[in-house]
Structures
1.
Amino acid sequence: EAQVTQNPRYLITVTGKKLTVTCSQNMNHEYMSWYRQDPGLGLRQIYYSMNVEVTDKGDVPEGYKVSRKEKRNFPLILESPSPNQTSLYFCASSALYRDEKLFFGSGTQLSVL
Amino acid sequence: SQQGEEDPQALSIQEGENATMNCSYKTSINNLQWYRQNSGRGLVHLILIRSNEREKHSGRLRVTLDTSKKSSSLLITASRAADTASYFCATDATGANNLFFGTGTRLTVIP
């Protein structure tokens, strides 16, 4: 089944404790992206990747890192999480960037205490 | 911001009625997409309309695009309780490398 898999689904952590949210897609998609969703603000893009080893900042990249060493994986790293990074996170992928629909993961609800 | 703005923010209708949601945006676009999100879950793509298209249909969905007014509408006909969800427009702006999502319309269909 074609899908984008995110883990974990829920995560509670404390300020400053490094964490990684994993994202994997099995559709051989070139484009992958991370979004955060906050009430009243909609979805905002954090980082995106057009292909392996090619990543770029989205609208809200501060406090996040990503890497794209393999086509299927696009982990989101929070080196030193802070409470303002408490949010619902989504990974998404598409075959190409333009004129292509995005496939979304099920989301990761992160709480930073 | 290039972000789309949906209107209304929330909409409540009876089952069987039609639901119309609107999206306005600020810059020229290559395409506009509509997505659906069930409570806290991942978004699901509904329909994509290109800048040179004016109307598109998919089942009970009808999307229109007016590039002169920088606006789009999503019509869901003969709504069902299962249509209860949030609906987002996303714009692929000319010259940008990502999709910009609006803040969504929360649709409630009452059985």
2.
Amino acid sequence: GDSVTQMEGPVTLSEEAFLTINCTYTATGYPSLFWYVQYPGEGLQLLLKATKADDKGSNKGFEATYRKETTSFHLEKGSVQVSDSAVYFCALSQYSGGGADGLTFGKGTHLIIQP
Amino acid sequence: NAGVTQTPKFQVLKTGQSMTLQCAQDMNHNSMYWYRQDPGMGLRLIYYSASEGTTDKGEVPNGYNVSRLNKREFSLRLESAAPSQTSVYFCASSGGTGSYGYTFGSGTRLTVV
């Protein structure tokens, strides 16, 4: 079945550091790829997405590029802020026709940014 | 505000008790989902409903039942709660074919003692 693997946390960085959170996936066909962010005590919010190979998703200074050849969708940000502290989930979705089957999530990466 | 509303936000149950988690969306989405979130496990799909009148099992359906009451509402029922069902439960909805992303509710934190 489909699966998503992302780096285990917590990841601790200083403010203004460069961020990379790795995500690789296993899937048949051509899934859509997503990054979600979860702030403490809240639900998940869509951060960015890409629906086909070589697409780049971007939002709030975060970027990720859909790399089919390496089955990866790494999340990057050039300069992180304390407010970026959260749990980040990589996910994929396959549409098999007749209705969506739900997202497959990675286990999440807890990001801590220190002032 | 438009979105997905879950009730209750917190609940404590005794082993063997039953309860229903409610979820409603006002975005006219066709698809709705129930996930559970556990430490170190990420989110796992319990049940989903691709459209009104249909429901299907996800990865971890045992111990749960669902009802798609209408297009807006999708409830999750625990008939006989067990400590292993202690978790945070999230409802989500989607209006597209899987590429539009999902809108999540704020979650229900359930403790079974």
